[in-house]
Specification:
The protein is α+β, with helices and mostly antiparallel strands and 279 residues long. It contains four helices and 18 strands.
Length: 279
């Protein structure tokens, strides 16, 4: 059987003026696929075996190529957007016919020249299509451990769960909502720390540094905001979590730690209604 979207070894069963016909065996009536004449290697004859990739041409017919595409069925890859049309975006995958990424399979608005992480699947019509919803295609087979620093690409932001990340564009990771604070967007490549390796191999990630390091940065951020308010912040460390998140992009605990540090260093004073910078 000839499989769409995969590399496979096929046998030449006939050679014509427009190319070589390939099949998985040499039995009569077997499904055949054409390898265009310009791709037929010199010296090819009936009975020759060769490795080819099978996809569909512009007329939706199965076609073989000796070229190796940038992505194959069930895989993920970072591809470049060539064109955006009424039905979706078309991406370059290294073959003559670009691949469609339908709008319903996009997790952000795309423009020509953009690069995005996608997976290749067969749609209901048995056509090769791309999706940015790559969760089920990412691997959990890795050697990462808690505390490791990793690089990953954000492919989905969920209001309920957080930011879904493809570590090394290949492995499944998540920055939980409680760790996020709006610090990531779809398509962004981030550096994160592994905070947990789940039993199934999925990675939990954090993009904030260890508390004692992060506190220094947070304290300086608080001072910047105080100075932007002309040295008087119109609320203190008892402000609501929503106010703190809006002004500082921090959790309330992180804000209180930063304020506490500044207070101990005698850089601020805390009043019942404000935080003031000390001269």
């Amino acid at each position: 059987m000839i499989a769409i979207g995969m590399l496979q070894r096929l046998t030449v069963v006939n050679i014509a003026g427009h190319g070589a016909y390939l099949a998985s065996g040499r039995q009569a009536g077997e499904e055949r696929v054409l390898l265009p004449i310009k791709q037929v290697p010199e010296g090819t004859r009936v009975g020759s075996e060769m490795e080819v990739f099978v996809y569909r041409d512009s007329k939706d017919r199965p076609i073989a190529t000796v070229k190796r595409p940038l992505i194959m069925l069930g895989q993920t890859a970072v591809l470049k957007v060539r064109e955006v049309t009424k039905i979706g975006a078309f991406l370059d995958w290294g073959l003559e016919k670009d691949l469609l990424l339908p709008y319903k399979q996009q997790t952000k608005r795309l423009h020509p020249g953009d690069e995005c992480l996608v997976a290749l699947y067969l749609d209901k019509s048995n056509r090769l299509c791309l999706t940015m919803n790559v969760y089920e295609y990412l691997s959990t087979d890795h050697n990462y451990r808690k505390g490791d620093t990793v690089t990953g690409r954000v492919y989905l932001i969920s209001d309920n769960f957080g930011a879904f990340v493809a570590v090394d564009d290949e492995y499944s990771g998540l920055i939980p909502k409680r760790e996020l604070y709006g610090q990531a967007e779809v398509g962004e490549v981030i550096t994160a720390r592994v905070t947990e390796v789940k039993e199934d191999g999925r990675l939990t990630l954090g993009i904030r540094e260890k508390a004692y390091l992060q506190m220094d940065k947070d304290a300086e951020r608080v001072m910047e905001v105080i100075e932007a308010f002309d040295g008087v912040l119109p609320f203190n460390d008892k402000a609501s979590p929503e106010t703190i998140k809006r002004e500082f992009n921090m959790s309330k605990n992180e804000f209180k730690r930063a304020v506490g540090k500044l207070y101990k260093e005698r850089r601020i004073e805390i009043t019942p209604v404000s935080i003031r910078k000390l001269k």
